[in-house]
Amino acid sequence: MRYDSDNIFAKILRGEIPSFKVYEDDKTLCFMDIMPRVPGHCLVIPKTSCVNILDATPAQLSACMETVNKVANGAMKAFDADGITLQQFSEAAGGQEVFHLHFHILPRHEGQKVGPHGVMGDMDEIKANGEKLTAALG
Ligand code: AMP
Q1: Strand order from edge to edge, sheet including 42-46
Q2: What's the CA-to-centroid distance between 84 and ligand 1, angstroms?
Q3: Residues 58-98 pLDDT 10s
Q4: Which of 11, 78, 110, 121 lies at a CB distance of 3.0 to 4.6 Å from 136, suitable for a disulfide?
Q5: Which DSSP letter does residue 21 get?
């Protein structure tokens, strides 16, 4: 699949559409998912073009995993979580909807169910959770 530079995450990277930024370094960006399946659901993406796990380079993957590790530990603290679910979907048949590589980080609590897919969250709540997470990253 060819990378489409008009995908929504490419627009977020270029600052053309807003996002609730949690963390960034020179290679990756983490921002809140606006349809959170649990409170604190966020996404980690590489800053360079890449469709999904199938065309990702080792450098893109390792940069993303470094950020996932950092943010996941922050999310454990920020949300007093019991665990983390890490998700990645590749190609439409694999459940991918936005075609720029991304990893979902879901802070989880014992016995907590994951909410439905595709339901817009409360923006004030998402913003507050993003700020909590950023603060926990110190
Ligand atoms: P998927 O490609 O299936 O892994 O899912 C794409 C994810 O991106 C979904 O969880 C959406 O809720 C999320 N999403 C879509 N548009 C935005 C946006 N503008 N800002 C933040 N998250 C988004």
Answers
A1: 21-24, 28-32, 42-46, 103-108, 83-87
A2: 18
A3: 999 999 999 999 999 999 999 999 999 999 999 999 999 99
A4: 78
A5: E
C-alpha distances (whole Å) from 13 to each of 50, 85, 110 are 13, 24, 34
Q: Which conformational region is residue 95 in: left (phi greater than 0), alpha (psi within -120 to 50 degrees), or beta?
A: left
Among 34, 38, 127, which residue has the most ligand 1 atoms within 8 Å of its CB, making it the best to mutate? 34
Report the nearest atom of ligand 1 relative to the CA of 35: 12
Phi, psi at residue 60, to the nearest 5°?
-65, -45
**pTM, to two decimals:** 0.98
**Closest to 90 measured CA to CA, from 50, 57, 117, 49:** 50
CB 86 within 8 A of CB 105: yes
Residue 1 has a pLDDT of 64
Q: What is the pLDDT of residue 46?
A: 98
* CA-based nearest residue to 59, from 47, 71, 70: 47
Q: How far is CA 34 from CA 2, 9, 124, in A?
A: 26, 12, 11
Name residues of the chain where pLDDT drops below 70: 1
